[in-house]
């Protein structure tokens, strides 16, 4: 035996749904009874029997109480009247408050913060709480009956809504952080209705963490919850606005992740991915409904909090109003800059090729040894650039490359003017030592070669046109 929960936009559709459900389950030998709805049916009571033994019918719905005549949700709580408490009693009292949507978030947060304090005091499960701590808990739970005064409208949209805006708010303190979501609907007559939809909170880690980091963690929590809500609602939402009162967190969100250190980088990557289609904005702490949520509220204060149940003015009146600020692109705050990766300055000291060769020549006057040194230098440079590494003795090609480079470098050092003239196809200077040697530039290697009668020899080109060095 179980209950069936459903809904319709009007009573006529509800009556059709009732008939179809009854006929369907009747085929399986099951009979539906104890019908209840918000409103008055159009048929006669005999044809449409409802469970209305009293003026107000209260039905338990998924752990919450639903009043059919007022179409509101409420809570039924049990107060622990013990004079002394243990940590087990505290946890049991918290678990009795069933709040799947987080509508009682500020009160639950206050209770969770108290429970974390017990862990920090290292109190055993069966150990009685110290008198001062027990008195704090007694004061908190004796206010539980005030939660029963809270009436939460089941239907949170406007009856003739033309547009729907989802507003999410986040905030953090040193004790807890929380995200809260509101649904704003606008009617044809520009009548705006804003109602609390859900919230989720977490106590701050025992290990100390800066408030800006907690604020960023809350932004990630808000992004995750908003995506879950969108998938669950299945509504055509016209705009999604996300708010935080932390300008540092907003600056991080608008910073390229690769510029940030690991902790912030990992969360910014997730936030940017989850909220790429949303709009992040800044809101003042005074107008942020998640602000009291992160610190906790007692039951009586929660029941009277207009900001918590309906959201701030910027949600109810105008999301682009003066209460919202431009999203900061960067920040000069120390907390922001501390999470940026430290730029390393690399100083490159370069020596020209001539000085380098002079150094090598000073080391050794052995030509073949000098060529081998240059050959291994070129191999090292090549291995750094290539996936295929060369090993073993130098090849003939590597010897030739090193020798050509050495000759060319020396020519540039001692025959710079001649090279410039030959490249312009002009004669060399009359005072040049190469004037009577018919010098020319070898286009294949860029070396200066000389001519003369040897050009008529039958030897190869390198022997006939010896590079001048």
From TrEMBL:
InterPro entries: Retrotrans_Pao (IPR008042). Pfam families: Peptidase_A17. This is Integrase catalytic domain-containing protein. The gene is AVEN_270133_1.
């Amino acid at each position: 035996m179980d209950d069936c929960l459903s809904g319709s936009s009007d009573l006529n559709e509800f009556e059709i749904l009732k008939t179809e459900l009854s006929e369907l389950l009747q085929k399986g030998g099951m009979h539906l009874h104890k019908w209840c709805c918000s409103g008055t049916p159009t048929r006669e009571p005999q044809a449409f029997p409802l469970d209305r033994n009293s003026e107000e019918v209260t039905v338990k719905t998924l752990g919450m109480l639903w009043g059919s005549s007022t179409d509101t949700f409420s809570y039924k709580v049990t107060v622990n009247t013990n004079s002394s408490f243990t940590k087990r009693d505290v946890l049991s009292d918290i678990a009795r408050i069933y709040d799947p949507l987080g509508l009682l978030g500020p009160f639950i947060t206050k209770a969770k913060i108290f429970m974390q304090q017990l862990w920090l005091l290292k109190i055993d499960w069966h150990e009685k709480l110290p008198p001062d701590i027990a008195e704090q808990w007694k004061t908190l739970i004796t206010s539980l009956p005030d939660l029963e005064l809270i009436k939460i409208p089941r239907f949170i949209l406007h009856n003739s809504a033309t547009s729907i805006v989802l507003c999410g708010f986040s905030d953090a303190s040193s004790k807890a952080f929380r995200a809260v979501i509101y649904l704003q609907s606008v009617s044809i007559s520009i009548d705006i209705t804003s109602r609390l939809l859900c919230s989720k909170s977490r106590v701050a880690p025992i290990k100390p963490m800066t408030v800006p980091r907690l604020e960023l963690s809350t932004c990630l929590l808000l992004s995750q919850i908003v995506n879950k809500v969108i998938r669950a609602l299945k509504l055509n939402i016209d705009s999604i606005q996300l708010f935080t009162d932390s300008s540092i967190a907003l600056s991080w969100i608008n910073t390229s992740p690769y510029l940030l250190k690991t902790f912030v980088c990992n969360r910014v990557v997730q936030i940017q991915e989850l909220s790429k289609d949303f709009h992040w904005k800044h809101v003042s702490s005074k107008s942020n409904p998640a602000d009291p949520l992160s610190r906790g509220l007692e039951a009586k204060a929660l029941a009277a909090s207009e900001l918590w149940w309906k959201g701030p003015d910027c949600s109810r009146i105008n999301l682009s109003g003066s209460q919202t600020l431009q999203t900061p692109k960067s920040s000069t705050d120390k907390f922001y800059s501390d999470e940026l990766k430290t730029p390393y300055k690399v100083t490159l000291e370069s020596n020209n090729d001539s000085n380098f060769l002079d150094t090598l020549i000073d080391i050794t006057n052995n030509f073949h040894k000098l060529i081998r040194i240059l050959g291994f230098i070129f191999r090292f440079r090549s291995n750094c650039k290539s996936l295929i590494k060369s090993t073993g003795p130098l090849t003939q090609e590597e010897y030739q490359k090193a020798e050509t480079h050495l000759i060319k470098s020396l020519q540039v050092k001692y025959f710079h003017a001649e090279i410039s003239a030959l490249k312009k196809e002009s004669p060399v200077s009359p005072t040049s030592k190469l004037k009577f040697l018919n010098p020319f530039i070898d286009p294949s290697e860029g070396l200066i070669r000389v001519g003369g009668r040897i050009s008529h020899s039958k030897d190869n080109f390198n022997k006939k046109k010896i590079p001048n060095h």
